[in-house]
Amino acid sequence: MRLYDISRPLLTSPVYPGDPSPRLDPIQRMDVGDDCNLTALFTCLHTGTHADAPLHFLADGQGIASLPLEPYVGRCAVLSVRRDITGQDVDESIVPGCRRLLIRGEGKAFLTPSAAFALGALGVQLVGTDADSIAPPDDEAAVHQELLQNGVMILENLDLNKVPDGEYFLFAPPVLVGEVDGAPVRAILVDWED
Fold first, then answer.
1. Span 45-68, mean pLDDT?
2. 79-99: per-residue pLDDT in tens?
3. Whose CA is closest to 59, among 138, 148, 172?
4. Does residue 194 surpass a pLDDT of 60?
5. SS3 call for 145
6. Per-residue pLDDT averaged across 61-87, rounded?
7. Which of 191, 172, 125, 123 shows the shortest CA–CA distance to 152?
8. Which is the catalytic residue, given 46, 50, 56, 144?
9. Long-range contacts for 175-180 (Cβ within 8 Å, ≥24 apart)?
10. Rounded-to-10 torsion of CA 89, 92, 188, 191
């Protein structure tokens, strides 16, 4: 069995334009005489590797705490692409029965609205990307809404650099923060070697 950690470090990942930078605030420090080290974390819920909840783009959408875990755990496919993905690309390239798809586009390949529609129609449960968003800025709301209203969960800012294309087992449940719009994720791929 081989494990791939496909998470990006929370404190050093690029921050989405307009989001606050993460920081650690020491509360107690043993080097100044405290009994233990204790640190507070300040971050946007969409920094680093994270899951988007429907509440992120749907006013009446579910928050992270209400989401089922099944979309975040199970067999998945990693696929390299070099341009934005259309509905026709999904129809021609995604194997029927694929429930989880992780896209490696070196941060430059996004889903178009037609691709989001096609993924929902295929019954995909989760789509992930190595980009900081699943969609380009001009289509961000439309793509997120199409996916989330059709039950397709979203992982963003994955690190797929060292993972060959292929099939894996994904384990990437979001942190149980509460009924909020997103949450950090520690995403891991399992490759069952012979």
1. 97
2. 999 999 999 999 998 888 999
3. 148
4. no
5. helix
6. 97
7. 125
8. 56
9. 175/64, 176/64, 176/65, 177/45, 177/64, 177/65, 178/63, 178/64, 178/65, 179/55, 179/62, 179/63, 179/64, 179/65, 179/66, 180/45, 180/53, 180/55, 180/63, 180/64, 180/65
10. -150
Residue whose C-alpha is closest to residue 131's, from 97, 154, 152, 162? 154
* AA letter at 172: A
Relative to beta strand 166-171, strand 188-191 is antiparallel
φ and ψ at 78, to 5 degrees? -105, 130
Question: Per DSSP, which regions of the chain are E strands?
Answer: 2-5, 23-28, 38-42, 50-52, 73-80, 100-104, 126-129, 153-156, 166-171, 182-184, 188-191
Kindly provide the residue ranges of all beta strands, DSSP E only, lying in 96-137, ordered along the sequence.
100-104, 126-129
Rounded Cα–Cα distance for residues 36 and 11 (Å): 22
46 catalytic, yes or no? no
23 forms bridges with which residues in the sheet? 42
